[in-house]
Specification:
This protein is α/β, with parallel strands linked by helices and 426 residues long. 43% of the residues lie in helices and 14% in strands. The protein has an eight-stranded mixed β-sheet with strand order 3-2-1-4-5-6-7-8, sandwiched between helices. A five-stranded parallel β-sheet has the order 11-10-9-12-13, with helices on both faces. The structure holds nicotinamide-adenine-dinucleotide. The site of nicotinamide-adenine-dinucleotide has 28 residues, from helix 4.
């Protein structure tokens, strides 16, 4: 297995292609997006990930990697195309099926197809049947099909591609072994050789587990807020119990994984996923609860200050701290709802995203120092590093609300400190 073709040059596919090229494979990246292909070939790619540009330039120079919009021949095809949520809250598999229909034209005896995209249970077997029917090649004998879900953490992708343990699930055991032989060259973490369905279930279980853990934190926050307690203090003291570890509540769950993947299980097993459904709903309700909390504080402020309009400044819009990714961000839902309020003059700061990508959608975008200076109420929605060192004492005339877990509430700062760094980044 020497020639590799990576199908889909996004956050997952491009680093995988680069790493494979750095480990001696001859790699071609295939994408339907001509602009992405053009940029990849010039080394000036529009994806943000540490080491990406430097490593890309090295493999381009070494001539063992290039990108194309014409599918090449290969011994192994790695599929890393999007699997977004469909309108019915299931998986939109159109990109996966379209990729299968393209590679079918090139498949030959001995080839391997590995699905890295996150997919519902049963999808790998379905794709294998499709390939067998269309090519006449026998699965497990002539061609080999497996699912190897990606578990990387954006901002640590190259480190994790090498060091994470991987689950390799073949349609047959021969498929599993063939797929494993691709990863053995560059993965240092253990390879767990399983079936395709096992691998599919495992990946979706991992993200559902995170979703459930976050939902617990949000449930606790709602109860604490209802009773007038500081949710962070409740969590911090509960976590003093030696066997309790509640996550830090935030303004919701976003991104393209945790907010989406549990639905793939719920959709396939609607009667066996009550906990996952409940967690999804709990987390989806969180932005609206945060909005209600802010509205109440705004009303109180207007009464206390005999004003009709309160200037509110929101800190952060991305779906998690210290990234530039706005996909499914709960902070955006909060911003949209507040923007519609007549008694709120809204400004927002998001130091990690270029202004043009978000300007004028939900209010005035300003640098956070300016926003804080001019606001009556400041609300933290995302715990970016830039906000952790703010000097609240300097602005003691302002009201500060924390839905990001920055630990602003003086009492909780010390209590939270221990867990904060580990938990905030989820
Ligand atoms: N980004 C992550 O951190 C992460 C982590 C784990 C799993 N995943 C999963 O990996 C998969 C890919 O995610 P991503 O973030 O890399 O997506 P992405 O949107 O960044 O990239 C996908 C690429 O696939 C291309 N594409 C779409 N259809 C194609 C086709 N038929 N043929 C060739 N190229 C095609 C797109 O043009 C795009 O460049 C998804 O299933 C996602 O859930 C992502």
């Amino acid at each position: 297995m020497e020639k590799i073709c990576v199908v889909g040059l996004g956050y997952v596919g491009l680093p995988t292609a680069i790493l494979a090229a750095q480990h001696g494979y001859h790699v071609t990246g295939f994408d339907i997006n001509t602009e992405r292909v053009r940029r990849v070939n010039t080394g000036n790619v529009d994806l943000t990930e540490p080491e990406l540009k430097e490593r890309l330039k090295l493999v381009l120079k070494g001539k063992n990697f290039s990108a194309t919009t014409i599918l090449p021949e290969a011994d192994c095809f790695i599929i890393a195309v999007p699997t977004p949520l469909s309108k019915q809250n299931g998986a939109d598999l159109s990109f996966v099926f379209s990729a299968m229909n393209i590679i079918v034209q090139r498949l030959k005896v001995g080839d391997t197809v590995i699905l890295e995209s996150t997919i519902p249970v049963g999808t790998t077997d379905l794709c294998a049947q499709m390939l067998e029917q269309k090519t006449g090649l026998k699965i497990g004998k002539d061609i080999f099909v497996a699912h190897c879900p990606e578990r990387v953490w954006p901002s640590k992708v190259f480190e994790e591609l090498v060091n994470n343990e991987r689950i390799i699930g073949g349609v047959t055991s021969a498929c599993t072994k063939k797929a494993a032989s691709f990863y053995q060259k560059f993965v240092k973490g253990a390879l767990h050789l399983k079936s395709a369905k096992f691998a599919e279930l495992l990946k979706l279980t991992e993200n559902s587990a995170i979703d459930v853990a976050v939902a617990l934190a949000h449930q606790v926050a709602v109860l604490a807020e209802e009773l007038g307690f500081d949710p962070y203090e409740v969590v911090a003291i509960a976590n003093k119990h030696p066997r309790v570890k509640i996550l830090i509540p935030r303004c919701g769950v976003g991104g393209h994984c945790v907010a989406i993947d549990p639905w793939f299980l719920i959709n396939t097993f609607p009667h066996k996923t009550r906990l996952f459904q409940s967690a999804r709903l709990t987390n989806d309700e969180r932005p609206a609860q945060v909005v209600k909390n802010i509205e109440k504080k705004v009303q109180d402020w207007c009464v206390d200050n005999e004003k009709n309009i309160c200037r509110v400044h929101l800190l952060g819009l991305t779906y998690k701290p210290n990234v530039d990714d706005l996909r499914e961000s709960p902070a955006i839902k909060v911003a949209e709802a507040l923007f519609a309020q007549k008694n709120i003059s809204l400004s927002i700061s998001e130091p990690n995203v270029e202004q043009e990508r978000i300007a004028h959608k939900f209010g005035t975008m300003v640098p956070f120092e300016v926003g804080i200076e001019k606001a009556d109420i400041i609300v933290a929605l995302v715990a970016h590093n830039q906000f952790k060192t703010l000097d609240l004492e300097k602005y003691s005339d302002k009201k500060w609300l924390d839905f990001a877990g920055l630990g602003w509430q003086q009492k909780t700062i010390n209590l939270c400190k221990k867990n904060q760094e580990a938990l905030l980044n989820l």
